[in-house]
Design brief:
Layout (H helix, E strand, L loop, with lengths): L1 H12 L12 E4 L2 E4 L5 H14 L23 E5 L5 H8 L3 E6 L2 H14 L4 E4 L17 E2 L1 H12 L7 E2 L4
Parallel strand pairs: 3-4, 4-5, 6-7
Antiparallel strand pairs: 1-2
The structure holds S-adenosylmethionine.
Length: 173
């Protein structure tokens, strides 16, 4: 439990902002540095721009990450995003009509993802949860999830219990 608290605290203090330096809200745009504030529309737009730019090879004509996320198959269906961070991936799914549940261990991520959904007009269930002990795992197993590192392994094992469930893991790079 102590380890989980340390992980949560670290990610709260160093959120996945895709800024010039990890955890910062400063972005390079058109040759100059732009300081944004966490939770602002400008912050989310720049974080997304950078996220998409870093992952350009994964995009196709269906949108960002279209090469790994079959959005059309999940319209109107539940998608679980584990380790949602600042909510960029969760919002992509919501924007394609998926019924998004997004969870994260750290409260900053939950707060920011809720803020983002509100700002951009999307609906979703966004909760602070440890992916290893999801409160709703039995009631609503994941149809699809996207995440990183250990959370991705959890998603894989959750989905593995239920034939027909799909899991996606997205890595940086
Ligand atoms: C590398 S960030 C990724 C954020 C986001 N998915 C993205 O692509 O920008 C990893 C996130 O996973 C969360 N996380 C780590 N372990 C977790 C767990 N056991 N349950 C839920 N979230 C977890 C962290 O708090 C952090 O926000």
């Amino acid at each position: 439990m102590e380890e989980k608290r340390e992980i949560s605290d670290w990610w709260s203090q160093n959120p996945m902002t895709y800024g010039i330096d990890h955890g910062t809200t400063k972005y390079e745009t058109e040759g100059h540095a732009l300081e944004t504030s966490l939770g602002s529309r400008e912050f989310f737009e720049n974080a997304d721009r950078q996220l998409y730019e870093w992952n350009r090879p994964l995009h196709d004509d269906t949108g960002p990450f279209g090469r790994i996320f079959p959005y059309a198959e999940y319209r109107g269906r539940p998608v679980l995003e584990i380790g949602c961070g600042m909510g960029g991936m969760a919002m992509l799914w919501a924007s394609r009509g998926a019924l998004v549940t997004a969870v994260d261990l750290n409260p900053t991520a939950v707060e920011q993802t809720r803020r983002r959904f509100e700002l951009f007009g999307f609906r979703g269930r966004i909760q602070q949860e440890d992916a290893n002990r999801l409160s709703f795992a039995d009631a609503e197993p994941p149809k699809r999830s996207s995440s990183w590192t250990s959370a991705a392994a959890t998603a894989t094992s959750l989905a593995g219990c239920r034939p027909g469930r799909a899991v996606g893991a997205c890595r940086r790079g």
